[in-house]
């Protein structure tokens, strides 16, 4: 059975993907549940203390000095959630909502937040029943964490607001919880605060992006190699000893992938003789390992930040291991926001280089003998002319999305929260960036495949041939002009699913 155990220890990026996308069953670790119960007893003892304790017997934010009487504290927690569920705009994707609920549950299970075990159990039950709260796109400033998105989830756990059931139908929360046999939460001291104070939304999107980019960067090596092959470039520049002269880890991996793709290509071998007078290939071919490799190293850095955040207990106040309840600033999203922005930069650059290779195929002055725009009947047909426009338009959008969100800050909460991370905004734009890269690589794959087909009677190497065969199931080869948009969508889907990289690996074994 596909299960993910949630306890006091960290989840992995793969755990997040399995729950968010694959509907893995969430199982709460019994030992960690005991720790949650022990920490709750500390909160209950402080609730009886006549001295005020933030989030337990006081208001929040700028109202932190306001003491709340015992008989009003349940209302305080519910009011906090209701008022903070103030998102606006389009619904956030199901996988994002599931990831942020899972990550909030992970923090609850650390025993550092002071919630009751039943609160953690409710979140697990909602995930396992496929109940997805409706979360709106706008509302989080990334400090104190992703307040509004998390509040929408907490509101749904209370039996209020809107959700999508397992079939995706929009429902009211109360009836959906009842149909699943889940008792709505009645929040006690500290619990409303514990459910909304975290970086879980931006972290969930970071984890999903890292998972996707690892595969996309391998795919970028594959499509780049096909372009080098189809444009009659050389594989000699990808030799391991050349890249050892500049020992960047990601660069070596990308170069190894490109060299493996091209090593036994008959097309590459066909122009190695003295009749070939070209000295150097263009940068978009020759320097692919340097760009793809730097992108890989950036993803690795982002993953190190994600792993640290996945091991964190982000709440305010937090229960320490020696029983103190302390305010802190760990909810600030800066560490996550920075790498989300960094990834958007490298995504834009990898896509930009891919688009330049696409364009080279279409220009007879640079394609080394291919027909203009790879058209079937030159002058009558436009070939892939406008497919390059599409790629160029996406790349232009990616450059705009590469402008960092984390350099902005808008003060809130009567200047109590006077510096915020904008990490949620950084994550939202990165999702669009990853989608754009997927589409550009899809266009490069179909362009390179057509270029290689037009090299007949020369045949591409076995790895490229395997990719072309995978594409040809959905994307036809050269021929007269036809409705191109569905082919671009199919090619992008094959890239996104990993099928393009898988096809190459069916010949070469696992790529780096």
Report low-confidence residues grouped into runs of 5 or more. Answer: none
- Kindly provide the radius of gyration, computed on alpha-carbon positions and rounded to a whole number of angstroms: 26 Å
Ends distance: 29 Å
Mean pLDDT: 94
Widest beta sheet: strand line-up: 4-6-7
Class computed from helices, strands and strand pairing:
mainly alpha
**Overall geometry:** elongated
Biggest sheet details: 3 strands, antiparallel
Element-level helix/strand string: EHEHHEHHEEHEEHHHHHHHHEEHHHHHH
Treating each run of at least 4 consecutive H or I residues as one helix, how many helices? 20
Number of strands: 9
Strand residue percentage: 5-15%
Topology (SSEs and partners):
Blueprint: E1 3-6, H1 13-22, E2 25-28, H2 30-47, H3 73-84, E3 88-91, H4 94-108, H5 117-128, E4 132-133, E5 136-138, H6 147-157, E6 162-164, E7 170-172, H7 173-179, H8 191-196, H9 200-230, H10 240-244, H11 249-262, H12 266-270, H13 283-286, H14 288-310, E8 318-319, E9 325-326, H15 334-362, H16 385-401, H17 423-453, H18 462-472, H19 485-497, H20 499-508
Parallel strand pairs: 1-2
Antiparallel strand pairs: 3-5, 4-6, 6-7, 8-9
Helix pairs in contact: 1-4, 1-9, 3-6, 4-5, 4-9, 9-11, 9-14, 9-15, 9-17, 11-14, 14-15, 15-16, 15-17, 16-17, 17-19, 18-20
